[in-house]
Amino acid sequence: MDTKQEESLSTSGSNRNIIRFDDGILGFEEIKEYLLYHEDDNNIIWNLQNAESDVPSFIVVDPYAVLSDYNPVFTQADLSYFGETDGENFVLLAIAVIKPNLVDSVVNLKAPIVIDVNTGRAKQIILENSDYPIRQKLFGNK
Amino acid sequence: MLVISRKVSESIIIGDNIEIIISEISGDRAKICINAPKEIPIVRKELLETRSLNKEASVAPQPQTLNKLKNLLK
Predict the structure, then answer these.
(1) Mean pLDDT, chain B cut into blocks of 10 residues (74 residues total)
(2) Which of B52, B58, B68 sits opposite A28 (nearest CB)?
């Protein structure tokens, strides 16, 4: 699925995507538009930055690169935000806290960012039915 | 920490005006009803934890840290 993820984002326009969060991101509810950039060639690391300012600027990672059998379950209510849409168009990314001592870095697998690549609309969804850690060590399983 | 065992439809009272009722238990999941004054915020803990992680994550790391990360994930 990570390979498919890479393709769907990469094909939607060079290496820059405009992403719209109608509800903002938790803690940053007032900021709706973000730019999503590649940070690496493998499409594992991305930068999600406020479209109108330098902050906030998040490092987001492909959750499947962190946990290969990642399999979040979304409720109907979670996905109603996206309206009528084909689930195939969703790309998942996870917000990471990158620490200078990299082994201390964590990634939030409990609240992935879901992006509909067809529309560019996105939402951070806190999973109700999947037990994943909010602070999963980025290098915990290596 | 106070630990109380409750059955479905039983409740606990916190302070003068907060009531927490166990409404349904199914598998590993309990459905609870909360009666509280509307000025008292009630959120799932994951929401607060995610918000606080987002705040922590909102400042981009130093370029050299990011480069180290990229090399590690190559």
Answers:
(1) 95 96 94 96 95 95 90 79
(2) B58
Residue owning tokens 């490092």? A59
Determine the straight-line distance between the first and last CA of chain B, rounded to whole angstroms.
Answer: 46
Residue B65: closest CA among chain A residues belongs to which residue? Answer: A100
Q: What are the φ/ψ torsions at residue A16 (nearest 5 degrees)?
A: -130, 130
With an 8 Å Cβ cutoff, are B56 and A97 in contact?
yes
**Given CA atoms B36, B38, B40, B46 in this order, what sign does their dihedral have?**
positive
Give A94's strand partners: A61
State which H helix or E strand residue B46 sits in: helix B45-57
Smallest CA-to-CA distance from B73 within A8, A61, A110 is with A61
Nearest to A18 by CA among A132, A119, A131: A119
Only one residue has tokens 């290596």, namely A142
Instruction: Note the ipTM here.
Output: 0.87
**Tally of residues, chain A:** 142
